[in-house]
Write a structure and sequence with these properties.
By secondary structure, this protein is mainly alpha-helical. Helix content is 81%, strand content 0%. Helix 1 packs antiparallel against helix 4 and helix 11 packs antiparallel against helix 12. The protein is globular and about 60 Å long. The two termini are 35 Å apart. It is found in: Cell membrane. It comes from Staphylococcus lutrae.
Amino acid sequence: MSVKTVILFLFTILSSLGMRIFSFACAFYILCYTDNPTAFTLYLVAIVTSSVMVPLWLERDTENDFNKKIGMILHLLNIILLFVFTVMFDTYFNYIIILGVILHVTHQVMAHLMTKNVQHMVPAEILERFISWCETYHVSLNILAPVISGLFIGYINIEHFALFHLMTEVCALFCLLALPFEDVAQFSNERTRQGFRPRLSLLLDKKEVSRLLFTAFIVNFLISAFSIAMPIIAIQVIHLHAYQFGIVEAGYMVGWAMMMRIFPHYIAHRALKKSYQISILLQALTLLLLGMILMLVHNLIVAVLLLLILNTLVGLSRPLSQQLVRAYVGKTVRNNHHKAGILTLSDTISQMSIPISLLCFGLLLNLHQAIVCLSASFLIFVMWIYFTRFFKRDFQVE
């Protein structure tokens, strides 16, 4: 293995380790030290909105001779903001929301730049293995980081988490300086050259694709109630400790990892309609049980176990439904020239509802949390009936 490959893997570890641990600490502090869901709602809406919008902005070509400069600027910006945070946090609590969003955006941009250049830093014969290592690391980090962060929150304050993140950013910056970047722009992005209207018309012209995207949009809107309700209920109502909440949060990635194992070997041999119906029912069930936990469960340990199971189910069912939608759209669209752009557009349409949902449900949770969860569960079941009734066509997912 070459030196630059080792440096790149070390950069991958350092650039995400501090970010993931600090992000969990930020979310917990916002939930723990505010009396209502408003602050956490704004924080989550801002982060999810950036998650939807930043990839669209990054669809534009990025000149490679500026990649290294952009990376250095982003890391320096993160270092400065984290340093300021350690000074200002006690006097300006809302800075935690601003910092969390900025760090999330810079992390996304940096990940995009590294993805575009990885093939020039890793020998071709080990490229596939290197990508597999990175994916394994990220899954492991996303499972362990909330648990680790939750354990330490009881002993150190958030300024120390910021200092840890600052140190990982400094080390990552030194790794970045040692990495080679191509001097000549060699990448072109066909999606930016394809018109928006042709892609949209190709989607809308197919009635069953339109129905599937409509279903995905509404179900995403409704199940996002879980994303905002579960943390608020866990911290502000049930009063979980940080390490308990960390264990619950890790459940999502456990479910996601299970889905990635199940999808190629089991779902691939099942009809799309049946599999998508199951994913919708699982999402309805999680919200139903969340509302029932809020009303009926008063034992802390039982609540932790049930919330862990529910978060695992959401981590399994939400990505599963997204993969099934992509599989259907990819199978249905025959125009290879527009296929990549259409898949991107279908993903964007499905996810556009999430920021709106988080804002709406975040406000509604101020009224009656159990009723909100039960109502969202009922509406998802209505969408299951709609999908079952009007979606006729089926095929094997390949």
